[in-house]
Structures are given as C-alpha cells and as structure tokens.
Specification:
Low-confidence stretches: 43-47
Shape: extended
Helix content: over 70%
Number of strands: 2
Structural class: mainly alpha
Number of helices: 8
Largest sheet: 2 strands, antiparallel
Length: 164
Amino acid sequence: MFGFYAFNIISLKTFLEISAIVSIVFSLYMLGLHEILYKQFKLSDDSNIKINAKKGFGKYIFAFVVGLSFAFGWTPCIGPVLGSILFYASQSETLYKGAYLLFVYSMGLGIPFILAGGLFGFFVSFLKRFKSAFNVVEVLGGILLILMGFFLVLGKLSMLSSLF
C-alpha cells in the first residue's frame, strides 16, 4: 500500500484508511479471532463437516466476517488482473472479443472453485490423516516467513533467488 501512496496512485487519506483497516484486522487476529472462526468448523468422525448452528443474528455476523476475511485475502490477487482484463476488454475491437476475454477469465477463476467443491470430501479425509503434522508445518512455515522477511529487509532476496 505504501508503494501506491509513494507513486501518488492513492491519496494520503486512502492510505491511512486502508492502513487502519489492516491494523484492525491484524489486531483481531492477534487477539485470537481466527481461533473462534476455526472452532465454528468441527470435523466429525465420519469425514463430514459440521457447522455449529448459530441462532438469530449471530449467523449473519459470522457469514459477514468469513466473507470479509475471504475478500481481504483475494482482493490483492484478483484486483489488478481483473482491472487489466477489463481495461483490455474495453479497448477491444468488438463487443464479442471483450466478452470472450471476460468469459475466459471467469472460467479460469471459477473452475478451481468447482473442483475444490467436488473434491472437498477427499480434502477432509486428507486433513484427518495430516492432522498430526500441522504443528510441524506451522513452525516450519513461520521460520520460512521470518527468514524471507530478513532477506527482504536486508535486500538479499536476489541472492536467495540466484541459488535456484
């Protein structure tokens, strides 16, 4: 976000608002909100997902929070690509070519979700078998992220990429 502000793509007000939102979300994460959300989904013994039934207005808040967290994760990935495709489609010679570009983009975005939904049962059984290694994966992933952060801050990321 600082890059957008530094190159005058967004205003200082927008930069501060987005920074505040990110800070709030990060602080909620640090306070354990993610664990509350994880507890909403419980794996039963027969490989089915059971969702705790919320009554009243709580289920709408839960759905909103899950959607909000999903949007925060996907916006940086989808936004620039979709913006580029929309711009390119608007500059195409015919309406059909622009519609075709958007259709292909939509299929590329939607098919993985359809496959994920179809293979969800397999994924749940994989998670049950892999549950014992989650702590090791989390620790190794955290160490890797810390090392990548040090390389990035020290300006040595290109040295790391030259090894491969």
